[in-house]
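OP here, attaching both records as promised.
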Amino acid sequence: MDISSFDLFPLDEKTEILPFCSKDDELNNFLFDDAKNYLAELMAVTYLLVDRQTQKTVAYFTLLNDKVSYDPEERSLWNRINRRISNNKRRKTYPSVKIGRLAVSMDYEHQGIGRAILNFVKHAFTNGNRTGCRFITVDAYAAATGFYIKNSFDFFTQKDRKDATRLMFFDLKPFKDAQKKN
């Protein structure tokens, strides 16, 4: 879906949050009860996608800084990540941005809005980015991992396979390289 017909803007302390309801009460509560507090504490920035015709919040997502770090218990994963990076640039940590929350209103589900938001974030951090950022990370709810897999995210580890959330990542470099070819 093309989200350009909606307004996309960062939440600020004066923003009136228009009606929003996803299937997840925790995500709903974060938007109305916590998002402005995270902003005030410089912990995360929440972006709203608003349908100006219906005056409803279509979706929201929250971004914060993160890093991908070496875990000695996950050597094979680390080797897989390091192979993506030239030898002279390999480190024990790599900069990333974390999608802390991503929710779509029940009124707008299954229209490709989540995918469009991920593509927006991918594009934002590979074109005109003001900081170094190699990866996007997410602590995906177990029920949402299929969505992230469809959008080319990988699991960091198998240690969390039975947990309520799974740590996943997306490497921005191949995405940027593919954009250059097009």
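Record two, same layout:
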Amino acid sequence: MRGVLIGLFAVLGYGTSFGQSIGYNLSGGYIAEGYDVVAYFSNKAVEGKSTYVLSYKGAKYKFSTEANKTKFKADPAKYAPMYGGWCAYAMGDKGVKVTIDPETFQIIDGKIYLFYNSWGNNTKVSWNKEGAANLKKKADRNWAKIKYTK
């Protein structure tokens, strides 16, 4: 009977929203391409180490120090990047999931926003130029619609 219940929970997606899991940006297997999300709050982009890893809501995070791992563990929602780690500008502008440059970020109202920055296109600059507040509202709405897509 126990095996049947476990199988039923797996089929129904126990612990997720309607059996779906969030489509995080896990480039390289980790949120923020393995950069330490706690370090962003010190205005630094620091690569995490494979010796300091935690999972949160189905996504793996790397940290540069044990202290940062401990901080994250105490309040993971504070440190989890917005929009599943996808580009905030693309989420607000077009409602699409676009990869990021983990060294291009911004902290707004205590939340991490990551941006695409390649081939001469730094979307963090566009985000600020076009009005972060308005784009953030759009990104919030768009993320609610597409967060369960791959």
